[in-house]
Write a structure and sequence with these properties.
Blueprint lengths: L1 E5 L9 H15 L3 E6 L16 E4 L20 H11 L3 H27 L3 E5 H12 L5 E4 L4 H7 L2 H7 L4 E3 L5 H8 L1
Parallel strand pairs: 1-2, 1-4, 2-3, 4-5, 5-6
Helix pairs in contact: 2-3, 3-4, 4-6
């Protein structure tokens, strides 16, 4: 099976989601699956946590490696005008701020993710959190089965989440949550 993981962060940093992403990718690779990860940036060859050598890494922000850690963050590629608009939204609505921010990041990510999907031709996509689900749906529609994962506090996330992200979550074939109690929250919104 060809499994494509979308993680909007940077694999060169240490953290719980990076660790979970790398462990999941390694487990799939160890059982013989072909695995690819699309991430925010970095050198596209290394990760803070060990990765199986057969795992292919794609960038969500560039066709080539982005070595400067500050420039490897997706949000750093939002134009000054869009940042100004985003900040005006922040003054009135955290939800509108978040929605605009994710729309801007999605415009940056979509062509690179579309190209990576076309190159790798996955059978299934696993997206880490609602932003990655949103980017995956924007890049491929509902053509490939999509599994969303959750690694954040859901009540707060849904309170700030824009409608495009919520709509994208409803395109998932399954959504993985960390705790059984979070299933009620997911069912309430999706």
């Amino acid at each position: 099976m060809k499994i494509f993981i979308v993680y909007a962060g940077i694999l060169q940093k240490s953290g719980g989601m990076q660790h979970a992403c790398c462990e999941m990718a390694n487990a799939f690779a160890a059982r013989g699956d072909e695995v690819a990860i699309a991430c925010g940036g970095g050198d596209l060859k290394t990760s803070f946590f060990p990765l199986h050598p057969d795992i292919k890494i794609y960038s969500l922000i560039s066709e080539s490696p982005v070595l400067d850690p500050d420039k490897a963050v997706i949000g750093r590629h939002i134009s000054s005008l869009n940042k100004l608009i985003r900040e005006s939204f922040r003054a009135f609505s955290k939800k509108k701020f978040h929605e605009w921010n994710e729309k801007c990041k999605c415009r940056i990510v979509k062509p690179h993710l579309k190209s990576a999907f076309s190159d790798f031709k996955p059978n299934v996509i696993i997206a880490y959190n609602s932003d990655a689900v949103y980017y995956a749906v924007a890049a491929m529609g509902e053509k490939i089965p999509l599994i969303g994962t959750n690694h954040v506090e859901l009540e707060r996330a849904f309170a700030e989440m824009g409608e495009p992200e919520k709509k994208a979550l409803n395109c998932c074939k399954a959504i993985q949550v960390l705790l059984p109690s979070q299933k009620k929250i997911i069912n309430k919104f999706c």
